[in-house]
Design goal:
Elements (H helix, E strand, L loop, with lengths): L5 E6 H14 L4 E5 L1 H5 L3 H10 L4 E4 L2 H9 L6 E3 L9 H5 L2 E5 L2 H10 L2 E6 L14 H13 L3 E7 L7 H20 L6 E3 L3 H6 L7 E4 L21 E13 L4 E2 L5 E2 L4 E6 L16 E4 L2 E6 L7 E6 L8 E5 L9 H7 L4 H6 L6 E5 L1
Parallel strand pairs: 1-18, 2-3, 2-9, 3-4, 4-5, 5-6, 6-7, 7-8
Antiparallel strand pairs: 1-10, 10-13, 10-17, 11-12, 13-16, 14-15, 14-17, 15-16
Helix pairs in contact: 1-3, 6-7
Bound molecules: pyridoxal-5'-phosphate (PLP).
């Protein structure tokens, strides 16, 4: 069998070691690792298994479909799903012991009607996305407390999510979060799990860790923001492809759509079989570099759907040579954060954007 043309290698031991490192950096009674969006493109079940091996006690996902896939894959750890579908009757999720992050009274009623669920109440402390907002909060907490008292469901946690706009803004959200817990306590409910912080807030603000922190991006060895470099995390994924054609150009020859680049001297170009359909951002045209044989070369001309061109000068690059697009920068490969910068985006979007025809190869 030949090597897949485009492939990502995912290191289970890197996830494990990142989770161990994060538990030192941002200790809390419980550690959740978030594996939504197919484990940020790394493979959800693999990420969950490795995270648990590294000491994670909870797994987080966006929706119940993702949660059920993890149960099917044999993950028995507690799983929380917090982005609930409007028409979900929650029966399968509850039967399979998925904890539900609840944002509305409608959801509370639907879940209570099934019976036997464990929920975390999601409070909108200012992010303005999901969760009960300040106008809905009193009634939301009263309905939840009543259902809890009646045994229709168990309120086991309170959660929120911060904006990262500034330290002051995050701390202000935390105050609102604490007030919501107090309000719930006055209604007689004292849930054991209180959580607010994702990677950046958990690392930056000890006071935001409460009883649990939720690590997504950092567990994959990527910095949540450029200010979070050098935390001792190991990039989990490397993206490789192959040189599929090599040719010598004259000065004045152009390459790829719209002729954005023209050779100024005689040079060799290598064609690489990966493009924007595979998650190589077209917006990185004109800025990206890749590594071939230990040396980084510029990507030239427009990045296309299936392929891009690399100017290798007079180097002896051959068809079949391995091309490393991103991986661990200590090995001389560009990092995911380089691609994020070249494409004017964030690391999250690079790894979650990997296309369906890229082979995923698990490494120990
Ligand atoms: C995605 C997500 C996280 C993880 O965020 P990172 O920045 O990747 O650590 C945590 N909590 C919630 C609610 C999320 O949606």
């Amino acid at each position: 069998m030949s090597t897949p043309l485009r492939r990502v290698y995912v290191s289970e031991s890197a996830i494990r070691s990142n989770v161990e490192r994060l538990r030192e950096l941002a200790p809390a009674a419980d550690t959740m690792v978030v594996v939504k969006a197919n484990g940020y493109g790394h493979g959800a079940a693999l990420a969950a298994r490795a995270a648990i091996a590294g000491g994670a006690t909870w797994i987080g996902v966006a929706d119940t479909t993702e949660a059920l896939q993890l149960r099917d894959a044999g993950i028995t750890a507690p799983i929380l799903a917090w982005l609930l579908a409007p028409d979900d009757d929650f029966t399968s999720a509850i039967r399979r012991d998925i904890t539900l992050g609840v944002s509305t009274i409608h959801q509370l009623n639907a879940i209570a009607a099934v019976g036997g669920a464990t929920v975390h109440l999601k409070i909108d402390t200012g992010l303005g996305r999901n969760g009960a907002s300040h106008r809905q909060l009193d009634e939301f907490l009263e309905v939840a407390a009543a259902a809890h008292a009646a045994g229709a469901l168990v309120v086991d946690g309170v959660m929120s999510h911060v904006s990262g706009a500034s330290r002051e803004a995050d701390l202000a959200q935390a105050e609102i979060f604490v007030r919501a817990q107090q309000q719930l306590a006055e209604l007689g409910v004292h849930p054991p799990y209180l959580h607010l912080a994702a990677s950046a807030a958990a690392i930056d603000h000890p006071s935001l860790r409460f009883t649990m922190v939720r690590f997504g991006i950092a567990a994959y060895g990527l910095e949540p923001t450029p200010e979070h470099a050098n935390l001792g995390l190991i990039p989990v994924m490397r993206f490789e492809s192959s040189v599929v054609n090599v040719k010598r150009l004259h000065a004045g020859d152009s390459v790829s759509y719209n002729f954005l680049w023209t050779a100024t001297d005689e040079t060799t170009v290598a064609l690489v079989a990966a493009g924007y359909a595979d998650g190589i951002p077209r917006a990185a045209t004109g800025r990206a570099r890749v590594e071939i044989g230990g040396i980084q070369y510029p990507v030239v001309g427009r990045i296309a759907m299936d392929q891009f061109v690399v100017d290798v000068g007079d180097a002896d690059v051959k068809t079949g040579d391995v091309v490393r697009l991103w991986g661990n920068p200590v090995n001389g490969t560009p990092g995911v954060s380089d691609w994020a910068e070249w494409a004017d985006t964030i690391t999250y979007e690079i790894v979650t954007g990997i296309g369906g025809r890229v082979a995923r190869i698990d490494e120990p």
